[in-house]
Write a structure and sequence with these properties.
The chain is of the alpha+beta class.
Length: 96
């Protein structure tokens, strides 16, 4: 699978930065109220990706989502434990 992109080499300075920085990306940024942008070059990017890249990404994405899900469950279990402890403390005060 052949991928062709134009990459823009730009100098960009945001209002909150003291100095300008170089930026390389596939989007040609424009100056606005928050930033000044000067395009200093364009590079044609041509890459031959393996044919199974999208299928491999699908498997990668599933694995990443499983990892995220595990972290969410762990955090939820921790928070539930904390809530249960608070409830038990309140119940203990009520029974005195």
């Amino acid at each position: 699978m052949n991928i062709k992109k134009t990459l823009y080499v730009q100098v960009i300075k945001y209002n909150w930065d003291k100095v300008a920085k170089f930026s390389v990306g596939e989007f040609k940024l424009q100056s606005d109220v928050n930033q000044r942008v000067m395009t200093i070059g364009e590079v044609e990017f041509d890459y031959e990706a393996p044919n199974d890249s999208l299928q491999r990404f699908n498997l990668f994405e599933i694995t990443e989502l499983e990892k995220i899900k595990s972290k969410v469950f762990a955090k939820a279990e921790f928070e539930i434990t904390q809530i249960d402890e608070q409830i038990q403390s309140l119940l203990a005060l009520e029974n005195k």
